[in-house]
Amino acid sequence: LFCLYILCCFIASYCLELLFLCRRLGVELGKVQVYQEANRETRVQIEESVRSKDVFIIQTVSKDVNTTIMELLIMVYACRTSCARNIIGVIPYFPYSKQCKMRKRGSIVSKLLASMMCKAGLTHLITMDLHQKEIQGFFNIPVDNLRASPFLLQYIQEEIPDYRNAVIVAKSPASAKRAQSFAERLRLGIAVIHGEAQDAESDLVDGRHSPPTVKNSGAIHPSLEIPLLIPKEKPPITVVGDVGGRIAIIVDDIIDDVDSFLAAAETLKERGAYKIFVMATHGILSSDAPQLIEESAIDEVVVTNTIPHEIQKLQCPKIKTVDISMILSEAIRRIHNGESMSYLFRNIGMDD
Questions:
Q1: What is the value of pTM for the model shown?
Q2: Any idea where the Ribose-phosphate pyrophosphokinase N-terminal domain is (predicted)?
């Protein structure tokens, strides 16, 4: 037997989804108390024995992401000190995943978080659609990076009428690989929007621009002539590919700040697209994102339930949810039984 624990659940409907997951596995949720004291310290109390058992800790990410992380770390350490055999973290959306590159004099926070989880006692990690696949290398434990694309592809085929008249759109060159993967599987065309406003993922904010490029004759030997990198000049917005009279499906891994999606939708409307869908794995939808989507040219936003977003759905009927609990429950079952995980990664290439 194995125990399945959940650290915290901030939205009641998401708790129902976890109960469905437990029902598929034929187990009950473990008994555990997680609460904050008056001084905001997190306290964890496991109310049943986990000695020599496989403990699966499911943690979703709330708006208070730092509290969520502390709850996870304390729970993992509590299971470790209670002599659990294996402690597997099930974190559908890995927090701080965008901070996986060195930027100027910042830090690689994803590496720090991975080290903290391993140090606390995590022995295995199940996650979904990491922002960068290289984050798996930050851990010294096995990491299973599941994919949500089969569920999103199925939604396109079943829920979008006349999807054969659609074109897969990358809102920036950085997301072109994901768009290409969707287009090849659906046998559709691809379009790429180029020349949008500079975002935080560009190389203008990483460590290669440090130190500053200002010449200082006192710091550089006169005999050294270091060539300076030519600054980039942002081209006007262009759409590479035909979207006129087509359904445009924008694909990405995370939708949080929706400004870039709204700008892409306006551009596609100007180029003749008559319907616009946005497909993403993780729907963070922070701040006033639901209101902006409701007032935009976007017809529908489809995200998975890796993150609770029931409140956002009430604010914006355009937001639809795809359930991915099936693949999580199967991953949990296979890991506990010592079965191969390759079945869950069928037809997934190196670029997916």
A1: 0.86
A2: 22-121
- Tell me which residue of 203, 178, 202, 205 sits closest to 192, measured CA to CA: 178
* Cα distances (Å, whole numbers) of residue 15 to 7, 19, 243, 281: 11, 6, 40, 19
Peptide bond into 317 cis (omega under 30): no
Rounded CA-CA distance 332/117 in Å is: 19
Using CB atoms within 10 Å of the CB of residue 299, give its burial: 0 to 12 exposed, 13 to 18 middle, 19+ buried.
middle
| Paired tokens of 129 | 């659609």
Beta strands in the chain (DSSP E): 3-8, 32-36, 42-46, 54-59, 86-91, 124-128, 143-146, 166-170, 189-194, 238-240, 247-255, 275-283, 300-304, 319-322
Q: How far apart are the first and last CA of the chain?
A: 34
Instruction: Give the pLDDT means over successive 10-residue stretches in the chain (352 positions).
Output: 43 58 83 89 90 90 88 94 93 94 90 97 96 94 96 96 95 92 95 71 51 53 74 83 95 93 94 96 93 95 92 94 93 92 85 68
Query: Are 340 and 138 spatial neighbours (Cβ–Cβ below 8 Å)?
Result: no
In what side-by-side order are the strands of the sheet with 86-91?
Answer: 3-8, 54-59, 86-91, 124-128, 143-146
Element holding 156 (H helix, E strand): helix 149-159
Q: Is 265 helix (H, G, I), strand (E, B) or coil?
A: helix
Say how far apart CA 111 and CA 137 lie, in whole Å: 9
The answer to whether 6 and 22 are in contact (CB under 8 A) is no
Is 312 within 8 Å of 289 (Cβ atoms)?
A: yes
For residue 267, the one-letter residue type is: T
How many other C-beta atoms can be found within 10 angstroms of the C-beta atom of residue 174?
Answer: 13
Give the tokens for residue 147.
């994919």
Give the tokens for residue 116.
């903290």
In the structure encoding, which two tokens stand for residue 329, read together? 């429950």
Instruction: Tell me the C-alpha distance between 262 and 100, whole Å.
Output: 25
What Rg do the C-alpha atoms of the chain give, in angstroms? 23
Cβ within 8 Å of residue 184, ≥6 positions away? none
